Amino acid sequence: MEIKICHLYPDVLNLYGDRGNIICLERRLNWRGIGCSVTELPLGEKAALSDFDLFFIGGGQDFEQELLLADLASGKADDIRAAAADGKTFLCICGGYQLMGAYYQTAEGHKCDFLGAVDLYTVGARERMIGNLSFKLGEESGGYEVIGFENHSGRTFLGSGVSPLGTVTSGFGNNGADKTEGVRWNNVFGTYSHGPVLPKNPALCDEILRCALERRYGRAELTPLADGFEQDAHRAALEMINRKKQ
Amino acid sequence: MGIRFYAALWVCKAVRLALRVLKRGGTTLPGKLAFKLCPDILARLSSGVDTLIITGTNGKTTTSRMAEQIMLSARVPCIANRSGANLMSGVVTEFADNVNLFGKKRLHHAVIECDEAAFAVVTKYLKPRAIAVTNIFRDQLDRYGEVTHTLECIRTGIKNSAGAALCLNADCPLTASLAQSAAGEVTYFGMNVPSDNASGALSDVPRCLRCGGSYEYDFRTFAHLGGWRCTDCDSRRPEPDVAVSAVASRGADETRAHFSAFGEALEITVPLPGDYNLYNAATALCVTHAMGIDSGTAAAGIEQAHCGFGRMERFDLGDISVRMILVKNPAGCDRALDYLTGISEAHTCVFCLNDNIADGTDISWIWDAGFERLSFSEGKRFAVSGTRAEDMALRLKYAGAAEEDILKIRSEAQLLDFIERSGENIYILPTYTAMLSLRDKLGARCGKERFWR
For A47-106, what is each residue's pLDDT tens digit? Predict the structure, then answer.
């Protein structure tokens, strides 16, 4: 068995330790004897997206956004929409998560069309939402409590046809108002938990791998791993968040 | 001078004295209070003081120590924020310390390191004669947001300092782009040769700042630093006025290198290991030239420089030595890891990861640093400590270590015991608050000064 990972725009969407997620996906496949290849697709480069099983899109800064949108418009946008609709697995974080939505409207009211792959949109605000974040995954994603860190000014709102990835237990989440965090639609996972969300949340990582394997092979057998350090880090971060809540 | 000024000054001095009697550093609180009472106190305290400011992401403290030593070699004693208190409050505290109760100044020169965001504010009041920008990398994004925000903060500071000579890193496209905001003279420093561990794995400026094209490199030094040029427009690395032209030898404690400085060839033994300290030396040569110091004097100063606190600092404890290398962002951490991979004798590496405000509360950056370059094999032991020790341990696991090879040390007291009993040399990579606290305790055991002396 083998999973082909495509890391979209690693050159401009790599702000907060995003590559930690790639390292994590790769290792957890390898530890189980499942093959894994990672193809980086930077600005300006093309590849047949239908060849891949799992896509990763990280967070970036506003500066390169124009270049990114121009590159998407050259054909990649259609391919990404098609892959998402086709049940390919996506992990999209922060800026990458916003990018999957219909549009981003800046705090000044300027509207920027995004991919429209998933029914959601984002509105900019001046105040950034920064800090530790925890949220409980929805039942369809395993019900596990995810621990991360968020740092975003955009407020994201979900359309009626999609579910949040989870419910905020601490922090802001999608918009700081409705307690939703991230999105789960088809096999698309979107979250504001930026950078390395997967290493400390192995259950989420395995859920993503399970989706990719099932889509490719019709079944997924993930042998359990001895997640000693993973569980320690998860527990310690959860304790820290709960301590700060009190 | 007004009542407010004296009130602020006296409060500042009284609080500083009180904190020192209580054996606390008092490097920031006095200045903070004084600034509240009299916002333009810094303008008054610094008028007539010839100041050079060093800002940028990495190398501020070490470069400042080199620049200060160069000034001393030229018999010019300086005000300096040696403890690394580099926000407005820390700068005010040092300048207030330089005047007596009636506001009379003792020293008339200053070498100040300044946080990138604070630089935009400090320069509203303090008008430097020269500014050096060391480099710009991703750092503490929970505070600054984005790298381009850091760039804009520094740009604001430069615009505030119309009369200042500007010294920029030619090898860093982000830093070099600041030249367009300069009103005065601009000089450049850089390395004309690749570093010992040249790699461009992680760039904070993937696309041309002017036209969005891609950068090509003739050679790389670190991350996005090197001999860059845009393939689409005419932006390119400016020719440096001060450059490392060749590295003669790299030792465990020092590096010998050839420099060219304003047309003069120099051979300098930089008393610190690691090629990134060559950048710091080039920065110091460049910025002190702007203060009118000749290159020969500057070279002598660098050879006598001491490291900044916790920056490659060595502590001798009986038979073993402990070296402390402050890490706080991926670029700096990669340099420290390069250094560690070059050490062949048996040793223990301790990573102390804290997430206090001064460290950055977001520890995601450890996943951008290349811990994969460590070899998790015989002869090297690894330990983790700090408020986020578990995250650090996990990072090492995913970099290739086995769980049983990583020792988790819960408290600082246990860590100190571990160090004393280790029987082999130790390299500690702490984040900022872990460094301050450990340094204090290790220093006490081997008779070093406290950080604020």
Answer: 999 999 999 999 887 667 778 899 999 889 999 999 999 999 999 999 999 999 999 998
| Cβ–Cβ < 8 Å for B347, B307 | no
Mutate to test the interface with B, among A31, A129, A229, A234 (most CBs of B within 10 A): A229
Provide the residue range defining the domain that includes B106: 3-189+274-303
What are the residues facing A148 on neighbouring strands? A133
Contacts of B202 (CB under 8 A, 6+ apart): A14, B223, B224, B330, B331, B368
Question: What is the distance between the alpha carbons of residues B86 and B63, in angstroms, rounded to a whole number?
Answer: 13
For B69-92, b where at least 16 C-beta lie within 10 A, e where not — what string?
Answer: bbbebbebebbbbbbbbbbbbbbb
A151 contacts B142? CB cut-off 8 A: yes
Strands A54-57 and A89-93: parallel
Query: A229 vs B206: CB contact, 8 Å cut-off?
Result: no
Amino acid at B380: K
Q: Which of A82, A91, A68, A42 is nearest to A190 (CA)?
A: A91
**Nearest-angstrom CA–CA distance, B257 and B20:** 41
B447: pLDDT strictly greater than 80: no
- Tally of helices (H runs) and strands (E runs) in chain A: 6, 14
| CA dihedral of residues A164, A167, A172, A174 (deg, nearest 10) | 0
Q: Cα–Cα–Cα angle for B24, B63, B201, nearest 5°?
A: 110
Q: pLDDT tens digit string along B179-229?
A: 999 989 999 999 999 887 666 567 788 889 899 898 999 999 988 999 999
CB A31 within 8 A of CB A24: no
**CATH superfamily of domain region A2-245:** Class I glutamine amidotransferase (GATase) domain (3.40.50.880)
Does B263 reach chain A within 8 Å, measured CB to CB?
no
Backbone angles phi and psi of B229, in degrees to 5: -160, 145
Minimum CA–CA partner of B203 in chain A: A11
Please tell me whether residues B175 and B323 are part of one structural domain. Answer: no
B392 occurs within a structural domain: yes
ipTM, two decimals, is: 0.94
> Can you give the residue ranges of every domain in chain A?
2-245
Does B453 map to a domain?
no
Q: Which of A56, A63, A128 to mutate to test the interface with B (most CBs of B within 10 A)?
A: A63
Summarised one tens digit per residue, pLDDT across range A114-169 is: 999 999 999 999 888 999 999 999 888 888 999 999 999 899 999 998 999 999 99
Task: Please list, residue by residue across B198-217, b when 16 or more beta carbons sit within 10 angstroms of its beta carbon and e when fewer do.
Answer: beeebbbbbbbbeebbebeb
- For A106-118, what is each residue's pLDDT tens digit? 888 889 999 999 9
Per CB-CB distance under 8 Å, the chain B contacts of A151 are 141-142, 145, 362
Instruction: Look up residue B168 and give its amino acid.
Output: L
Find out whether B160 and B120 touch, Cβ atoms under 8 Å. Answer: yes
Say if residue B153 is in the same domain as residue B111. Answer: yes
Instruction: Give me the torsion for CA of B304, B306, B307, B312, rounded to 10°.
Output: 80
- Picking from A149, A229, A235, the nearest residue to B403 by CB comes out as A229
Q: CB–CB of B141 and A16 under 8 A?
A: yes
Q: How far apart are CA B78 and CA B109, in angstroms?
A: 5
Cβ contact B35:B45 at 8 Å: no
Q: How many CB pairs under 8 A join A and B?
A: 101
pTM of this prediction? 0.85
CB contacts, 8 Å: A194 with chain B: 364
